Amino acid sequence: MSYHTDRKRGERPVIITAISEEEEKLIDDNKIITIERDKIKFAVSKKNIYGYGHIDFSNNSNDREDVNHFNFLDTLDFGGYPISAIDYDKGIFTGSWYATWSPFTVCQLMHAYLGKPDKVCIFRRV
User: Whole-number mean pLDDT of the chain?
Assistant: First the structure.
């Protein structure tokens, strides 16, 4: 989870979670959906979604530039988001840490933590 600051609402968590084919279809149809994960419910509408569906997080992904435009790390004043180094394609975590300004890198790590699900939803919690 990361945070995005909305000038009117303050900090809002940014969440990535696996979604089903049915949940993706509801989002496609502009429905507000309720996603429940670990007994926590999230109301998600298309206006709060950065991206959803099949997103390629591999090291040579064509989606890298698009995900980096999500810009949900824009409020970090301390020099970046601390992240564990990972070779995503091999599924190897090095255990070392570094700072990043890249939403793609953060999402890539979170996607790996989730077990690399086929479809995900990246959204701001309201």
Answer: 83
